[in-house]
Amino acid sequence: MKYAIETHDLVKVYDNGFKAVDNLDLFVEEKTIGGILGPNGAGKTTTIKMLTCLIPKTSGEAKVAGYDVSKQPDEVRNRIGMVPQLVSLYNDLTVRENVELCADFYNVDQSIKDKKIDDLLELVDIKYAEDKYVKQLSGGMQQKTSVVASLVHNPDILFLDEPTVGLDPTTKRVLWDLMVELNDEGRTIILCSHDMYEVDKICDNINIIDAGKVVANDTPQGLKDQLLHNMEENNQQIRKSILKLEQEGIDENRETINGLKSSLTDESEIVTVMVSNINDDMINALDDLDVVNKVDFLGNGRLIISLKRSETSVNHVITTILNQGGNIASIKTNDPTLEDVFVAITAKHRKEIKHGN
After folding, report:
1. Phi and psi at residue 151, to the nearest 5°
2. Does residue 190 form part of some domain?
3. pTM above 0.70, yes or no
4. 191 and 140 within one domain
5. Which of 144, 151, 286, 326 could form a disulfide with 124 if both were Cys (CB 3.0 to 4.6 A apart)?
């Protein structure tokens, strides 16, 4: 397995003594889209600055495209592109002039420079505005120009820091499609974003950073599955504690027992099912299932079903509807979102720090 980004015990301590990055171990495979998430002040920006050779590391090891950021910074710079959150372009130059300036900085071959710029401008659909000054452009058009400038030297790795902040939904989707297309061409994409839907939609793997450390790393679905698993394990431990206290005596432990019960995570699962031919027999059959807590019919073929969470609950619902002759148009569960994962993991880590673990 080859890594586009690889760090071991990476540390950054600023002159005022603040440790922004704390023994960070970060790995992003080649030719993947890697997401980096973290609360404000978690160390994401500092990490990106070290990886892109903008600031030196204090200690540890960091390699980008196989090159050491301290010993081989020029090799790193030649293989990366950067799209910052705040567009870094010259307002008094045109779109094309900004891109040409970047091409000259990276010594792009003059014989292919013009065609390369034309192709990239077409790729992001901004060729029509190549002679407009940057100061005349909308935020979305400026961001597209920034992307072209970052790609003009054909980098292997593209860093994007909050690339879609403030953009309209249509422009966001254009940039998402572009990221996927660039990745399909073999580039590694590093996406830093607070947009959970964006990261969930396009990233192959996610690193969550908090207090300068990687506190979770997995695929988007893997992180959600792990959250469910942790919730179930936590509930099992709480129930064991409740049972033990009840055996010792309910009256004398009532307050503690009630406190533990209130900390149990809701284990019900809400399933929304669209059925084109709902009838009373179907609803009654669903209501009779042991795994079903409640069935609500909202009209227009929509059923909202509260289930006892298990591996087979949804299967029972589908089977029952089909046995009743139902035609299922769609089904959707309320699995944890990436935002749920993010909140749970960072809250747990902050609690561990507070208690000195």
Report:
1. -100, -5
2. yes
3. yes
4. yes
5. 144
